[in-house]
Fold these 2 entries.
Entry 1:
Amino acid sequence: MSNEKDLIQYDEDDAVKYIQNYLPQDVKGKYSNDEINYIIDIVYEFYEEKGFMDDDSEGEVLVDIDEDEIVSYVLNNTKKDKINNFSAEDISFIIQGELAYCESIGIFE
């Protein structure tokens, strides 16, 4: 039941705005909203591949997220898609911003 509530609260446009504001000053404005959305989409593909998005789990499940693994996954996908304008550090900031957005709306509670 909690997952349905979480999906209703998550707003893609709000998430991108939040991330844009979260980014360090030297990264703000470097990427368009579409580019940030693209990275978020890849991150969620990673979560799905790892089974982090499964609704079948019973009770609370502690998920250990390896940020380096996610960044590597995102970089591999951007290279595969021939979009190479993202640095590992910037991707890390985008991921941190997305996680902070999720925390701010109570998804992890």
Entry 2:
Amino acid sequence: MKKRFFKKIIAQTSEDLRLIAALCSDSLTVSNKIKYLKDNKIFLIPIERPLNELGKKNKKIESILKFEYIEKSKSKNIIQDNDNKILKLITIDIFKKNNNFEISLLFSDNAAINLETEIIEATLEDLKKANDENN
């Protein structure tokens, strides 16, 4: 019997966020599925990411990248009306700006999302088991 696991990684420091950035590098998302729930201060990005941690870059897994306590969100070159626009996540950077953090999600085609928050609280959660037979 194969060992199965359900992965969830929580980032609360810039070092933790770098780990999530490495796991999500070269992930794909659809622009109109990115959601900012302003009243809840939650930012959600559904992604299809390579299984870099298992050395299986050809295999993909559906995951959700969630940022909490988001005060502001700004985007550049992301049109959510186009449901066919595929974005490739290149990296996630974090900067300290006054008393807040600015999290920058950098995508292909010069697209970007900047999130402003007082504290870092990000979660990467796989939506199905990584070594499920359907992968």
